[in-house]
């Protein structure tokens, strides 16, 4: 039986070597966690490296034309990824245009105007939406959105309801929970004292939101949008089902919203299609497909890292 | 003892209630079924410093927040009773609580500056409450900073971040921010508890100067401070599980010759001596 004094002495004695295993003076916990972190980072690094190596033939063959070329005909070994980059960015932009005002607006409502308990219930419900499998969203898109878009824009003589706009709207709905819940966190991170001080000066609730909460949560709100964007760029199956998968569709004016009403192709919908399997036998074709994945990964990583950086960096006072 | 206490409170009421800045009758505050304040009756005369002392957790801050309806921001708090500011009930449906708060400045325990420049902090409230031209705003800022005895320290760096100021300066900046919109009364919730002695002295000197034009309600834990700056004192103590005004008297009378047992105990505890 261990008495209290024994325990105290035991703790005192074991403080150090006996209780915490050390390896060459470094704690094993630190060593193990370092190893796991290195493993995770190493995987991403190795993946990128493999993608770069595998896509080398297409860069050698097409040069910068791989990024700027508008034609993709694998039978004649012409590979230009621009229409797909355009499609990916357009679809993500439409999604963001939809999700930003609605998501941030909803976040302002939940964080600033709802009592704590209701806020949590609403937040959990919305986060549940983020867990719905994307193929289900895709089916809903086919079921409802496609026909709705087709009829809504009937006077533009649409060829079908499978358009970049349809995919963008669907993506907007899909990233809405992400944007909203992250924006809500950003707004909640503004200290309550700041709001109370503003209200104490006689500002209304609305003035307080506009003058105190939103400016101070600004970086967090941008982070919410960037992380939402990261999700939108990479989303495959839902887009695949409603985007039309029309190759080589690059409008004369890439800023014209008229082109949103045409079918298109995104990087992910191209990669998700059967062409990936066909390409495997042909080194150059395969390199072109892997190149698409590399471009996509770069875009997603840029958005995600940008978002994480905005979230992490401490708020710098604006003068 | 109880009788004597009530007498004391009533006699004070009749003398001051006619032109009182604040008149509080039968104020009750509850939160989630718990009574925080019960039957609080206080009259606060204009252009004097009205101190509120009492043990921690007795409801001094809650009382202060009832005066400008800052309690509205906490949904679970229920307030009943009559609180009048310059003769008008603050909970009258015709009263806009935001406009009310604009007329009553509030100084918190910890200075809360916005992460902006000094000048933007001073003008933060007033530029949203009134439409003022640039020139007038500059004048307002200078006047408010002078009133808060901060002008000489910051006049050359008005565009610097307010976060770079010391805590004592930040508290005076908060005071300047409140003064910029020319409030009729200023509520202070232990404004010096986070400050060093020198900054505390600066705030105390300001309080004495400001009472020439403003009514000040000051919650303090510091009996020395109460003695130095207040004219009237109320001691809020816990009685039957809820805070209530145990005794109200002019400053010297309450500190030198407390009538109520709870006040005697509070003052005698020694923990709050200067």
Describe the structure.
The complex is a heterodimer of chains A (319) and B (274). Chain A is mainly alpha-helical. Chain A has 13 helices and four strands. Chain A has a two-stranded antiparallel sheet. In chain A, strand 1 (22-23) and strand 2 (26-27) form a beta hairpin. Chain B is of the alpha/beta class and 274 residues long. In chain B, strands 6-7-8-3-9-10 form a six-stranded mixed sheet, sandwiched between helices. Chain B has a four-stranded antiparallel sheet with strand order 2-1-4-5. The model of chain B is unreliable at 1-16 (pLDDT under 50).
Brief account:
Helices cover 71% and strands 3% of the residues of chain A. Chain A is an all-alpha fold.
What is the count of β-strands of chain B?
A: 10
User: At the third CATH level, what is the topology name of chain A?
Assistant: MetI-like fold
Find the structural class of chain A using helix and strand composition: mainly alpha
Number of helices of chain B: 12
Mean pLDDT of chain A: 89
Q: Would you tell me the structural class of the helices and strands of chain B?
A: alpha/beta
Strand proportion of chain A, as a percent range, falls in: under 5%
Number of strands of chain A: 4
Helix fraction bin of chain A: over 70%
- Report the radius of gyration of chain B as a whole number of Å: 19 Å
Q: Largest interface, counted with CB-CB under 8 A?
A: A-B, 21 and 32 residues
CATH architecture of chain A: Orthogonal Bundle
Computed Rg of chain A: 26 Å
3D shape of chain B: globular
- Termini distance of chain B? 28 Å
Element order of chain A: H for helix, E for strand: HEEHHEEHHHHHHHHHH
The proportion of residues in beta strands of chain B is 15-25%
Largest sheet data of chain B: 6 strands, mixed
């Amino acid at each position: 039986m261990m008495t209290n004094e024994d325990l105290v002495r035991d703790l005192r004695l074991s403080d150090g070597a006996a209780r915490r295993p050390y390896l060459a003076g470094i704690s094993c916990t630190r060593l193990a966690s370092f190893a796991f972190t290195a493993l995770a980072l190493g995987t991403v690094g190795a993946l990128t490296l493999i993608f770069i190596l595998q896509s080398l033939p297409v860069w050698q063959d097409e040069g910068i034309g791989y990024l700027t070329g508008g034609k993709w005909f694998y039978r004649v070994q012409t590979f230009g990824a621009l229409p797909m980059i355009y499609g990916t960015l357009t679809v993500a932009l439409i999604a963001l245009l939809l999700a930003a005002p609605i998501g941030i607006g909803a976040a302002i409502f939940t964080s600033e105007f709802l009592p704590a308990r209701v806020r949590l219930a609403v937040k959990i419900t919305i986060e549940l939406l983020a867990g719905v499998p994307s193929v289900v969203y895709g089916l809903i898109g086919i079921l409802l959105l496609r026909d709705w878009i087709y009829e809504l824009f009937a006077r533009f003589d649409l060829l079908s309801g499978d358009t970049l706009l349809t995919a963008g709207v669907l993506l907007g709905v899909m990233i809405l929970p992400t944007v909203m819940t992250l924006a809500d966190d950003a707004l909640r991170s503004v200290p309550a004292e700041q709001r109370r001080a503003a209200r104490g000066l006689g500002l209304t609730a609305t003035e307080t939101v506009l003058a105190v909460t939103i400016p101070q949560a600004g970086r967090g709100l941008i982070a919410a949008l960037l992380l939402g964007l990261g999700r939108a760029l990479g989303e495959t199956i839902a887009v695949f089902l409603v985007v039309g998968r029309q190759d080589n569709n690059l409008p004369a004016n890439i800023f014209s919203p008229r082109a949103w009403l045409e079918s298109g192709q995104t990087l992910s919908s191209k990669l998700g299609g059967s062409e990936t399997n066909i390409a495997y036998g042909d080194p150059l074709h395969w390199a072109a497909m892997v190149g698409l994945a590399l471009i996509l990964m770069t875009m997603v990583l840029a958005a995600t890292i940008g978002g994480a950086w905005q979230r992490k960096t401490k708020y710098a006072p604006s003068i | 003892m109880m009788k004597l206490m009530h007498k004391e409170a009533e006699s004070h009421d009749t003398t001051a209630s006619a032109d009182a800045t604040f008149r509080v009758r039968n104020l009750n505050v509850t939160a989630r079924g718990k009574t925080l304040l019960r039957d609080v009756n206080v009259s606060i005369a204009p252009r004097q410093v009205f101190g509120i002392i009492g043990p921690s957790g007795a409801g001094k801050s809650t009382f202060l927040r009832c005066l400008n309806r800052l309690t509205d921001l906490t949904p679970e708090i229920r307030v009943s009773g009559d609180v009048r500011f310059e003769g008008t009930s603050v909970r009258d449906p015709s009263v806009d609580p935001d406009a009310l708060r604009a007329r009553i400045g509030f100084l918190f325990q910890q200075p809360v500056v916005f992460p902006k420049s000094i000048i933007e902090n001073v003008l933060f409230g007033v530029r949203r409450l009134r439409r003022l031209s640039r020139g007038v705003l500059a004048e307002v800022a200078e006047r408010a900073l002078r009133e808060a005895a901060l002008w000489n320290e910051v006049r050359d760096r008005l565009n610097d971040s307010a976060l770079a100021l010391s805590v004592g300066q930040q508290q005076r900046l908060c005071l300047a921010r409140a003064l910029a919109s020319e409030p009729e009364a200023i509520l202070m919730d232990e404004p010096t508890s986070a400050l060093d002695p020198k900054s505390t002295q600066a705030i105390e000197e300001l309080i004495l100067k400001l009472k020439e034009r403003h009514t000040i309600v000051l919650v303090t834990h510091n009996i020395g401070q109460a003695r130095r700056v207040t004219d009237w004192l109320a001691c809020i103590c816990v009685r039957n599980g809820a805070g209530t005004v145990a005794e109200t008297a002019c400053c010297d009378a309450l500190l030198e010759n407390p009538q109520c047992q709870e006040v005697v105990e509070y003052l005698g505890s020694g923990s709050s001596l200067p």
